[in-house]
């Protein structure tokens, strides 16, 4: 990417730690409802991270009620992200965990990272 | 995610509607930039400059359009710390840098094309009296004297402009107080302005009818051997016995002048001479583009 485009990148959000695929995270998102602003939480597993300056994003997957899988993609540099907490690191062997989409229940678990 | 345009262009607001976006963007910029807060109120230094701008343009035939332009320039001069004269011309030559996303005050991600625009020099002013129409010729990109012909150098020397690679004309309704040799920067635009961007589209070479005109493809099966991307019939047979002019078919595509109209200016960066306009812009990255005030008000 050209240096001129890089110069326009928004500052890195200090409240987002380094994320890895497989991390269980809780994303705190600032939501505007009319005049009021509140923080919404989205908990789940990071299934992919894409780099690219202002376009950098990550996707979080969680299982909502009735076993419905919900995925949400957040822009890493978005000022709307309040903070991200990493709850747990998992031991995974690939960068994109799309295989989790085909699994449910016990088979969709990820082993905790050792050491 | 995208923000509603604050001022959908309608017939009724050709007179007053233009003031709206200009004022709103000043507020927005004041929030972004703490330095400009102090000067956002009409300060003592800014006041004489706006008066000074009024004086020469008062001689102009008074017109609604002209008044709006004066308001815009007066507002701009109050933002800047030192009173800087901002030319009334809303047009620039630039190069497309590429597309990216930027975040606005509300945190919405905006798809923008970044254009490295200007600084341009006014190399000639065409007047109605002399040339039959009003226009401003701008030049972009300094180069070495060796790159230009004697005639080109002589033309530029008239206005004391440096050797410039690209010269383009911008039609204007009123010349205002523009002077030959003046330097035009991205500061003539404000966030919220609507502009047209003109560029040369990417060349596609000799393209088939599907790519060029959106024809449908043929069947892949049922005994079809060579009909997948064929254009089909060009017309009837013995009568008329020829193909009518203008029938769509394969041929050269792209590399033509294309305008993208009514794009919103979302970013003005005077330090780096960058403009950001909402949406896409014709041509490849690095291609020459003209940024003009929108034609359809």
Low-confidence stretches of chain A: none
Gyration radius of chain A, rounded: 15 Å
Which residues of chain B sit in consecutive blocks of at least 5 with pLDDT less than 50?
1-80
Globally, the shape of chain B reads: globular
Explain what you see.
The complex is a heterodimer of chains A (115) and B (297). Chain A has 115 residues and is mainly beta. Chain A has a single domain, classed as SH3 type barrels (Roll), CATH 2.30.30.790. In chain A, a hairpin with a 2-residue loop joins strand 1 and strand 2. The longest helix of chain A has 4 residues. Chain A is globular. The relative contact order of chain A is 0.26. The model of chain A has no long low-confidence stretch (mean pLDDT 90). Chain B is an alpha+beta fold and 297 residues long. Chain B contains seven helices and twelve strands. In chain B, the strands form three sheets. In chain B, strands 1-2-11-10-7-12 form a six-stranded antiparallel beta barrel. The chains are: A mainly beta (115), B alpha+beta (297). Chains A and B meet through loops of A and strand 1 and strand 2 of B.
């Amino acid at each position: 990417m050209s240096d001129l485009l890089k110069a326009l990148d928004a500052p890195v959000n200090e409240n987002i730690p380094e994320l890895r695929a497989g991390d269980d995270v809780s994303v705190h998102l600032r939501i505007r409802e009319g005049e009021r602003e509140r923080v919404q939480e989205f908990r789940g597993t990071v299934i992919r991270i894409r780099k690219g300056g202002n376009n950098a994003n990550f996707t979080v997957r969680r299982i909502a009620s009735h076993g419905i899988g919900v995925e949400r993609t957040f822009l890493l540099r978005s000022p709307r992200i309040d903070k991200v907490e990493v709850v747990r690191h998992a031991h995974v062997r690939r960068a994109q965990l799309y295989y989790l989409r085909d699994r449910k229940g016990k088979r969709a678990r990820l082993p905790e990272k050792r050491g | 995610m995208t923000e509603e345009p604050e001022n959908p262009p309608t017939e009724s607001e050709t007179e007053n509607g233009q003031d709206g976006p200009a004022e709103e963007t000043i507020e927005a910029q004041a929030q972004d930039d703490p330095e400009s807060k102090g000067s956002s109120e009409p300060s003592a230094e800014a006041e004489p400059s706006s008066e000074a701008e009024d004086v020469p343009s008062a001689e102009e035939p008074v017109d609604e359009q002209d008044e709006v332009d004066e308001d815009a320039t007066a507002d701009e001069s109050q933002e800047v710390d030192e009173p800087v004269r901002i030319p009334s011309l809303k047009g620039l030559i630039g190069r497309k840098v590429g597309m990216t996303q930027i975040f606005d005050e509300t945190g919405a991600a905006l798809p923008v094309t970044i254009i490295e625009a200007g600084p341009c020099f006014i190399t000639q002013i065409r007047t109605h009296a002399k040339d039959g129409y009003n226009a401003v010729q701008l030049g972009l990109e300094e180069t070495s004297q060796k790159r230009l012909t004697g005639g080109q150098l002589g033309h530029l020397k008239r206005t004391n402009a440096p050797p410039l690679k690209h010269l383009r004309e911008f039609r204007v309704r009123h010349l205002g107080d523009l002077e030959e040799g003046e330097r035009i920067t991205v500061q003539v635009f404000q966030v919220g302005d609507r502009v047209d961007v003109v560029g040369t589209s990417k060349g596609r070479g000799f393209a088939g009818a599907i790519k060029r005109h959106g024809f449908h493809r043929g069947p892949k099966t049922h005994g079809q051997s060579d009909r997948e991307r064929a254009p089909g019939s060009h017309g009837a047979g013995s009568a008329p016995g020829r193909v009518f002019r203008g029938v769509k078919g394969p041929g050269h595509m792209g590399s033509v002048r294309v305008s993208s109209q009514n794009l919103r200016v979302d970013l003005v960066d005077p330090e780096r001479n960058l403009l950001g306009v909402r949406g896409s812009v014709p041509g490849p990255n690095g291609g020459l583009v003209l940024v003009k005030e929108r034609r359809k008000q």
